[in-house]
Each structure stands twice: as C-alpha cells, then as structure tokens.
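Sanity check. The docking grid for adenosine-5'-triphosphate depends on where the pocket ends up, so I'm generating a full predicted complex first rather than guessing from homology. Inputs follow.
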Amino acid sequence: MRTIALANQKGGTGKTTTAVNLGAALGDAGRKVLLIDLDPQAHLSAHLGCEDAQVGSYELITRQARPDEVAIQLLPGVLDVIPAGLSLAAAEVELAGEVGRELFLRTGLQDLTGYDYVLVDCAPSLGLLTVNALAAVREVFIPVQLQWMALRGLGQLLQTIEAVNGRLNPELELTGVIGCMFQARRILCAEVLATLRQHFGKRVFKTVIRDNIRLAEAPGHALPIQAYDPRSRGAEDYKALAREVLARERRARAKAHDS
Ligand SMILES: Nc1ncnc2c1ncn2[C@@H]1O[C@H](COP(=O)(O)OP(=O)(O)OP(=O)(O)O)[C@@H](O)[C@H]1O
Ligand SMILES: [Mg+2]
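Predicted complex below; grid placement will be based on this.
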C-alpha cells in the first residue's frame, strides 16, 4: 500500500485537483484508492459531492472512528473517500495542547489495509494537520503551479519534510514533484519547470498537467475529470500521470528485486 500526501503550503497549486484526478485515474487503472481530505476548506470533499458528510477525517484523527467507519464508497472497490467532515476546522486548535499531537492521523491509519493507494489532500499550510499527514505517510508529492513565485516557500516545505522525517517518520520521502497548470505559450512556465528539474531532478514527473478549463469546471459537477469530460486534456494528463506513477513503481520493484 502506497501512502502519499499532496502537500504545498502555497494555496491553489493543484493539490486537490491532483488528489481527486490522479486518484480516479489510478482507480481506472485497476488500483484500489482511498482519498483523505485533511483540509478544513473541504474542497476535496466538495469536489466529490461529500461536503455535507457529518463524520470524516476529524473523527479519524480524534480516534472516534476507524477508517472503514468514515470512508464513503464512491465507486465500490475502486475509489473511497474520507471527507473532511464538519468538525475538521476545530481540530488544529483542539489537538494543539495534546501529547503526541503530530501522530494522531498515523495512529488512526495504523491498521488500514485493503487499498493500493492512499492519497491525503493537505491544506495550504504547514500547520498541525499537514504535519499529521506527513507523519502518517511514506511519500510526499508536491504539486507546483508553474508561475511566478512558484518556488518561493518550497525551501520551508522541504525543511518541514526533513524535520518530520528526522523526528517523527523515518520512512517519509519526497518522491514526486508535479508541474501543474502549464501554459504552452508562457515562457515562464517552461522556465519554472526547468528550475524544478534542476533542483529535484528525476523526482519531477515528465507528465505536466496543462492548464485546462475542464479541470476547473469538474468540481462544480462533483465529478473527477475522467467522468466529467474523459476526452479533455485534463483527463489525458491525469491518465498519463497515473501511468507514470505506476511505471516508476514497476521500475522500483524490478530494481529492488534485482539487488
Ligand atoms: N490544470 C488546471 N487547469 C485549470 N485549472 C486548474 C488546474 N488545476 C487546478 N485548477 C483550478 O485551480 C484552482 C486551484 O486548484 P486546487 O484547488 O487543486 O489547488 P489546491 O492546491 O488544492 O488549493 P488550496 O491550497 O486552496 O487547497 C481550482 O479552482 C482548480 O479547479
Ligand atoms: Mg486544496
């Protein structure tokens, strides 16, 4: 089971869009996927029509419920979601004074089985909920909006990942950087992408998510892009990203097998 947090404390970089549509594309590719909304804005839940759920990740992190009690089966056997629930906004404050406050999600997920991929959608902050996500997963993907100032703040994010890795979660690794909202006519987009490749090398996915209005429309219809407009560029790009994620996994497995 691969557990991946989509994190970037900058707002609007494509975290939620990537969690939903990469998750759905991995589901289309035959993987069993769980999406977890760990953002009090509850955009992922809204994108999938679950924003009114009474219970969700708040109950999971406060140990009032097990994952299977709060997971909603969107496509049974393919795609489940643990929505934010109504109380998540209070969690950050409530957890602040608790002992072991960074490890609540990790504890909540410790017996989780039955999924190939668990994707955690983080809020645009490096607060306690995001630290809980980083402490609970093995991998981080950073979606980056390919525009001016995109790289600003990434250093702080990397420091947080390093600190969580050193103190809370030795397995945590930054394994993917995803260029989002690419506009072919903007030289700046290509420049930012090149800078990302210089810094992060092969961790930057070859697949780039192009700017596509259909991706921005899909949440309003409470559908992943594959269901909303399967022929759109957005659907194509997330399908290609899912393929690349799976191909990397196969290569990593083959390497581990050979050594
Ligand atoms: N490739 C794209 N093309 C066009 N619009 C996009 C694309 N990706 C995301 N968007 C839109 O841009 C906005 C921000 O995207 P998204 O919500 O995924 O970012 P986020 O990082 O989750 O934001 P937040 O930090 O607020 O959680 C949304 O309105 C989304 O529909
Ligand atoms: Mg979001």
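Relevant for the grid: The chain has twelve helices and seven strands.
Also worth noting: The pocket of magnesium ion (ligand 2) is lined by residues 15-16, 39, 43, 121 (CB under 6 Å).
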